[in-house]
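Lecture 7 notes: from sequence to structure.

We start with a single chain of 450 residues. Read the sequence below before looking at the structure.
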Amino acid sequence: MHNREFFPVRGVIEGYYGTPWTNAERLDMIRFLGRHGFNTYYYSPKDDPYLRERWQEPHPPEALEQMEGWMACARESGVRFVYCLSPGLNMEYADDSHVSRLLAKYRSMYERGVRHFALLFDDIPLALMHPADVSRYRTLAQAHAEVVLKLHEVIDGWEERVELTVCPTQYHGMGDEPYITELGQRLPESIDLFWTGRFVCSPFLPEADARFFAERTGHKPLIWDNYPVNDLAMADELHIGPLRHRDPGLWRHVAGYVANPMARAESSKIPLLTAAAYLRDPEGYDPALAWAKAVEEVAGPEDAAAVLRFADNVQGSFLNETESPALLEAFLQFRFQFLYGDRQAGLRMLGRLFADMEETALHLMERMRNRKLAAEIGGWVEKYRHWAKVGQSVTAMIEAGTSGRTLTAAYHLFRLKRWMKRTERLPQKVCGNVMKLFVEAVLLELKQTR
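Now the structure, written as tokens:
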């Protein structure tokens, strides 16, 4: 069972908005991919101008030199290096000179050893923009298909076999939308089409959706999974939780699976390791087990428990609506103890909880061995430490209030409000609404007892 390859393409696409990885990070990531069963790396950072806005211009010599280093590293690691161009912002499809420039850029990379190419038409208007295109083509799909077919015909005649992948402009949905069905039907089956599922960030990837896409377009979709990426509107989330809700039988209907990571390369390794476990054995995949192993590998055995304690509070994403499950459970236990059981035991438990939170935060900030990981998650850990301080103020206030020390309780209420203000100024999403709702519930209780 484990020896078979479920997904022919198992890749990572550096395809996010934001600062591209450094040369060292990219080399490190390619080696990491090779060690963990991935077989493809797509070079496509949105902020490399020579792939997107300035696609018609050659890469500067120093950039080409670095690229050759990544290619060599990929060969040594058993990973295919895919060179991606995104010309759609200013390409005129009817202009043959534009098609020639695309070909010339691909050819220059072919001569450097690249055999896998991608043409990306994502994140551009779903309409023809240039007068010459409008008069020549009936639809955007027709224009895109013509460009792809011209490229395909030429590169198919090159000395060695070359593969081409396309990202359609409509890369999410069901697969029966007019653009994608027309594009799919015009292109040969050998050209893979990227697809992100029903949504740009799909909470679920059902087997039936992939099958439907394949039926309507004539292409098994190449999954582009926008997890763990956290660019644009997701920038305040730290996506280090495990991959979830990808059907165990998805592999039957797809051409492969490609994950789009975060700009934070080291942190991305945790969710990518869970993706690797899913790709290896989709039918036996256990997110919690894969996550624990991934954290241990990236953070190291000495720091894994602390990372997991913290990470339980940053799991919120489009894949997971549950925020801070352990914290929420602790608050429910405290409430029960405080109202119906042993008040002092409840307060001691709360005190320990927030002391542990602070200790965990300090451990990660100051003593974690993987300093790169510590630096990347630092903003979220700082917010976690702030919530620990809020919790300590709440506990001290309840303790003073229930034992009749009104002045002390008032002092802790003042401290609590100050810490709340400081904490809420930090944009990172930590603990979801769990801490906030806990504090609000305590303050409401306080008002009602006055």
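Strands lie at 9-14, 40-43, 80-85, 116-120, 163-167, 192-195, 221-225, 256-259. Keep this in mind for problem set 3.
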